Every structure is written in C-alpha cells, then in structure tokens.
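Fold this complex.
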Amino acid sequence: MKYEKYDFAQVEKKWQDIWDAKNVFAATNDYTKPKYYALVEFPYPSGQGLHVGHPRSYTALDIVARKRRLEGYNVLYPMGWDAFGLPTENFAIKNHIHPEIVTRQNVAHFKSQLKSLGLSFDWNREINTTDFNYYKWTQWIFLQLFKKGLAYKKEMSVNWCTSCKCVLANEEVVGGVCERCGSEVVHKVKSQWMLKITAYAQRLIDDLDLVDYIDRVKVSQINWIGRSTGAEVEFGTTTGDALTVYTTRPDTLFGATYMVLSPEHPYIEQWADRLSNMEEIRAYQAEAARKSDFERTELVKDKSGVELKGVKGINPVNGKEIPIYISDYVLMTYGTGAIMAVPAHDTRDWDFAKKFGLPIIEVVKGGDVEKEAFTDCETGTMVNSGMLDGLSVEEAKEKIKTWLEENGKGQSKVNFKLRDWVFSRQRYWGEPIPMVFCEKCGWVPLPESELPLRLPEVKSYEPTDSGESPLAHMDEWVNTTCPHCGGPARRETDTMPQWAGSSWYFMRYCDPTNSEALASKEALDYWLPVDWYNGGMEHTTLHLLYSRFWHKFLYDIGVVSTPEPYAKRTSHGMILGENGEKMSKSRGNVVNPDEIVREYGADTMRLYEMFIGDFEKAAPWNSSSIKGCKRFLDRVWALQNVLEGGKAYRPSLESSMHKTIKKVTEDIEQLKFNTAIAAMMALLNEIEAAGSVNEAEYRTLLILLNPFAPHVTEEIWEAQSFGGMINQQKWVSFDPAKCVDAEAEIVVQVNGKIKCRLSLPVDCPKEDAIARAKEAAAQALEGKTVVKEICVPGKLVNFVVK
RNA sequence: GCGGAUAUGGCGGAAUUGGCAGACGCGUUAGAUUCAGGUUCUAAUGGUCGCAAGGCUGUGCAGGUUCAAGUCCUGUUAUCCGCACCA
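Structure:
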C-alpha cells in the first residue's frame, strides 16, 4: 500500500504557491475570447476574520469559475474589500488606531484566510473601497448624479440611530431599530444629501424581466418598491382650500365619511386660527413626533387622532361635508399625506371610525360592514353610489376616474413605497462628499480635476452629539474656496454611506487600475454584465437595489452599455451553528474556518460546505459529517494503489462514467452541488467495487472533482504524470446515448403493490414486458381476473385485478 | 395583517413528466484489523409483526383525483424569513 493518506497541509500550500507564481487564474484582456464573469459579494473585512458562511458562497462560484476555465472561457473571478464602515471606525475610536491601519490589518488577515481555501480569485484585480484611487470614482459618480439633478440636499425628518449617532437609510432600519447595532431609531430633522432612486422605481421593476434572478429576489424587490395604482382626488374644504388625497379605491368615493391628515400636514398650521381646539392638536402633533418608529409600530392596533374642529372637507361627488381628523396612521411621506376614509371598505378606517363613532356607509355590497370592513375587490357590487350603482368594483374604478378627470377633480396616479435614498452619514470612515457650500452660489460640486477629495487626518473619530460629522472640526479642511466664485466656502462634512463603494465595484474589477475613468469602455463592454452573481438575501433591498440603480444611471449617461448589471443572481442559505441557531459569539456556536482547514484541509472544508445541504437553504454545521468528505478524498487518493492503464472506460463502468459526467455537469449549473458530490461518491463506490480504476476513468473522476477539491486533484494529476496541470485540462464530455443501461430493472405491481422485479432490455416491447411480468407475478395473479395492464417502458408493469 | 418559503428516518438531506420513497453522507449496531485509542475494512440500519419466507405500515394533518401521489387538487396546522398603519 503505497498511497494511504496524504499530507494535505503540505500539498495545499504547495499548489497555492504554484498557482500564485504562475498566475494561472488571471483573467486576460484578450477581448476576442468568450468571457465569463463570476462574482461574489466582496466582504467587509471585520476584525473577527472570515466566517464559515463566507466560503459557502465563494466556493460555489469558485466551482463555477473553475469549470468555466476548463470549458475554455476567459474567466473573471475577482475579490476585493468593502472596507469603509462603522465597525472599523468604532474599533479605531476604542483603540486609538487610525481606521486605515485597522483596515490594512484586517484585509491582510482576510486575504490569507481566503488564500488558504484555494479560491481561484484573480488577485491582480484586488480592489479596496477605501483606497483613494478607488473612491475617486465613487465621488465622480456622485458628481454625475448631482449634475443630472439626482443628488439633492434636503431638510427632512430622518431616521437617527441614537447609538451610532448617525442617520440611516430606510433600508437600514429593521423593525424600528438600527440594522447594525439594534439601538433605538428616532426621527430627527436634518439637512441631508438624497439620491433620487425613486426616479428609477418603474424601471427597477420593469427590467427585472430582463434578468435571471431567483424568484424570491424579484418578489422582494417588487414588494419593496411597492407600486400601487389609484387616483388623486381633490376634495373641497370649508376654508376654500383644495385638499388632495391619494386612494387606490376611488370606486368607494361615495363611502367617504371623514378625512385624515398626517400630523405633519402643512394645512394644520395654515388653518391654525380657524381651529377651535388648536392646543389639543399641537399636543397630538408633539406626541406623534416624539414616538420612535418602534413605538409607532407597536401601537398599530390602537388608533389615535384628533378632530380638526372648525374645518370640514367637502366630497366632490356629492358635496357632502365631512369631518377632518389628524392621526399618525397617515404618513406624510406617502401619497399626499392626506386620505379620504372609507370605513366600510378599509380595515384601518373601520377601526378608527368605530373608536370615534363615525358613520360607516356601505358602498360595495358583499360583506357585513357593521362587523368588519369589506375589502374584497373581486366580488362586490356598487351600492349607495349614485352613478356607480350596480357596477363591479373594477368598472366603478374606471368610471369614476373618467368622471374625476372630466370634472377636474382628480386623475389616475401611480405611487411607490420606495423612498429616495438618504445618502449622508455623520461619520468619519466613509467617502467624503465632494461638495462645497458657498453663501453666494449655494451647493457647488468640486471640479472633477480635484478628485479624489481625500479624507483628512483628524484627531478624533468620535461621532458628535450635535449630529455633525467628526470632519466638521477640521477647520483647515472644511474652510475652502468656492469653485464657482472663488469666495470663502465650506466643505460638506458628512460622508457617504457604506453602500456607496459597493454600488459599482463590479465595474472596477474590469479595469482596476485605470486612472482616466472608472474603467475603460472596452473593458466594461467586454466584461459586463456580470454573468453570475451570488450573494446573501439580506442585500436584496439594499446593495442589490442600490447597485442596479447606479448601473442604470451610468447606462443612461453612456458609461456602461447594458441596462442591467447582473444577468443572473442566486443566493446561498446561511450556515447555522451545530444547535441549529444562527452562529454568534454570544451563543457560543461559532465555527472557525481556520481550525477546520488546519484539521481537515481546504479541500475537505470546501467539499463539506458544498455537501452540507441544499445550497439555497440554511443548514446547520455538523462536525462529524465533515469526516465523510475527508474519507471520500482519502479514498480518491488511494485509488492510485489500484491504478491500471487504459485509454477508454471499461464496459462495466462506461454508462456510470457518462451518467456521472452528465449529473455533475448539469448539477453545477443548477447550484445542486450536494447531489453532484453524491454522484461522484456513488461513482467511487462503484469503482472500488470493481477492484481497480483505469487511467481513463481516473482522469475523468479527477477532472470532475477538480473544481470542488482543487489541491488533491492537482497533486494526483502530477504524481501520475497525467500531463500539465489539471486546471489547464478540458472539462469532460458525455455521450447521452451512453448514459442509459442496456438492461433496466422493471417493477412488477399488482394493484399498485410491488410483487417482484425483473431485469429486461430497455428496448423490450410492451407486449413482451407484460408477458414476462405476468410470468414473474404468476403467484400473485393466481385466481384473479386481470382488468387492466399498465406498462411504463423501462419502469414498471402494473396489473389491476379483481 | 400582507408577502415569501419550508415540513421526508436518530441527523444533514435525495427522489425528471405522478411510476421502486429514503440516493449520498453522518450516526448507530455487529464483526475484522489494532496492546489500546484513533484509523481502515466488511455487514446491517424507516417503523412494526414474524424463528423464517414474508406481511402490514410509512413523506406535518384531514379529505379528494388516479391503475399508481412525497409529487396533482381542496381544506388545515406548525415553523422560519421578509415587510408592516403605504390609503
């Protein structure tokens, strides 16, 4: 027994060094070759180092990338660092180290961890969002957005994390608390840079048709953008002012029995001297403003509000005067900040009407509006609605819209839940926003020639209680001259959010050192779109949406030539702790990838993470199961002991070889890595049962396994002098005709119950199969009458008897 | 409340168009190797009745369609994830 075990630590290091030295995974700039761009989300280099979750995604696309190289593509599989952000900054504050140094250390650690896994990244194209040669172009994109009117500064109520002392985008507030630290989020009025993502809302929905994303990603993006169709309706008021509301149910206009304004609605101040209960109203406004998002959502069930006494609304369809309330269940940020309330057909209005004793008028027949709101749009018929009586809801909607338009009282309207993107952060460790404020000229963009605007050295990175960025104290940096008039001016001191750098990083990989442009047009045209992008579901409505928006904008201004950045998007499930819970330090169930690599080797680690279960689903780690993967690789290694010559598969194994190639080839494309590995294990079992392996069989097995376990396959390939490096061979092909066996096992059933099995040639005619089956099941058929004979060729014969 | 998903042995999970449920792996049991532990090898392994041959039963639950259902239809329960007063 010559080959029993191998020293994986030594073998893996050896091959990693050789790949590095020979630069074998570098993408070439030969734009005539067919290309393949595989992308995984670049990590945030945190102090904790790599998590076992990272390699799940990275190994999966590494397998795809390695397979594509064997298939002859020019493959780009790059890696970089999304390194701006709060954890690094907080660590820097605590330990009085510059965030740049922290970042450098963390990157070095991450990089060595990734290298130890044998991932075939093209390290020549490594990027880092905190490198000023990189963020120069992040700033450049911001300037283009500003020039097109898509970046604007606005005084507004924003989400404010009380612990990070920083504003948050809507997407970063989860369940009323800060996505990152879990602290309370309150509202604060601040002047903020905003990006007009809402201008792209419709296209962000429509163009999902152009791409191959897994369904749940499309569905959540569509829900998040939240398109709704309805109408704006102009109500009159006893003050003479018109009060416009948005509704998706204009058909129920006759059922409007009151109106509700958001507590922040500007009419309230405008009407102040007419309102007899202004004190009560002010108290309610103050209370609503004080509530955090969390409290507001907690109190969803219990409606509150105050009537505006002294003013009435006037329903345009029937001239009826109805009361107006304010309530925090109406949001200033959606629609017009005012609604018509139809308690009979809206649950929220119903709750409110019941609490305040307001009338409920049924206008769609079909439910019992005294018991609950009847909200069904499919079945009801219009009643109590004048000209709409007798129509279906759909017909009524159309008719009333036409009436509103003809009478100048409203029109159809589409609304989106999506809000503009709050783009300022009051922190140090981010890209400076390249804008200057001049008393005379207002906000002036920095000339492109002055980019990058580098982060200055500061004494303290501490966020301030005043809500200003730490940069605000750097007078010599802040005070500058106006690029427009030359007069004294001040720089913007807020920085960009963490999502800025990651919104376009996949473009930079195409041409990472370009100093003239974010990347050359040729490089972008060749490499984009990304062919396959894998990443976490948690980024669906953050990074993924933001980067689609930026890409579309860059498409509009001619920087890129494809409307969508990613042709295909898939998502991996989480790796949970052994107890089935999410891995976390506090739960004490964290698995350290370094230890796994040390104990079992990178090949085993990779194989196990791919074998652990359905790639798209969460799977608990299991420290015994990993042994199975180690055993498998050891047995593949040990085949060297029973290796024989032979240029063709032996007949007994031929169909198994072809079937396995087919299975592995197809499964990789469908993210079914677990069954691809199972198929290779089954093939190995069969080869072992045969007592030996021949060269043709071994070569095929090694090539199939190479993308999964690149080191050991490379080592065997070399040890057996199979010629060159395995990563430079050709992917193996199969013959569909040879994937079928000559004989198939047929199941013989009587009344659907299996009685026996028999082996028949696959091309055995039906009649013969039935005859043979009848013989075989003679005992079970004795004394019975066969009513029906069913034969599925190659599968079964079933006799229905009485 | 709305949206999305999931439910199969002791565990992770397999099962083209409805056609042998439990592939592959872990674990377990027995045996071999070993001073021993580990490793490796052989065999068994859904439950249940039976000495056995063999039978019965079995994919969250209740119905239904079918020669045949994990898969299709109707209803229902549980769990997970996302969103949440969006008019």
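The longest strand of chain A covers residues 151-161.
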